[in-house]
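This entry is passed on directly below:
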Amino acid sequence: MHLKKRVSVVIPAYNEEKAIGKTVKDFSKPYVDEIIVVDNNSSDRTASIAKKAGARVVKETRQGYGYALRRGMEEAKGDIIILTEGDATFVGDDMEKLLIYIKDVDMVLGTRLTEGLMEKGAKMNWFLYWGNMFLAKLIQLRFWGKIQLTDVGCTFRAIRRKALDKIINQFEVGKSEFSPEMIIIALKNGIKIIEIPVHYKKRIGESKITSNFRKSLKVGLKMIRLILTR
């Protein structure tokens, strides 16, 4: 618990056997009450390794990053729900930053684009960097005066249970553009959000969403459409 609040960590995972054990152990802090790994149809040992490391494993058969996160949030029992990745790109100690700021707002977003906190070799080329920045500023323009934003693709975030309950039934996206959808729905519902810098490390294994320029561009175009129309 953190200040008498139960803390749940949700980790979506698809074929992350090389990293999931390390991730679960890194996020198993004394103030974390449960870690939920959502196995999104993995064909490797992701589920068994996560369970052995101490996580509660649930299955989501609908394929997609958004579906996995949504399932994990539905399963979570905490008063504060923290989302992260299963590829060891984020640092468990940074949860303390999220928990400090969640006292004053409803949702805390991480940003990976901070000089000095990005590890050499982290998957953030010029296209992903400026693409995330552009999309973030597009949301900022749409909701002028309500948010300062630099990174729409950062999964690492925390949300209060009361805020999540207010919006969880409004989610529609099941694929990779879920991250900005969650931000947009939160803003439309008057949820107070702040963004803070987090460490971003070299991933273990290959990215399923942005493994090449073509995939990255396709995801970016979907996000632009979502931001303009959602």
Notes: The chain has one domain: 7-229. The beta strands are 7-13, 34-39, 56-59, 80-83, 107-111, 157-160, 193-197. The domain at 7-229 is CATH 3.90.550.10 (Spore Coat Polysaccharide Biosynthesis Protein SpsA; Chain A).
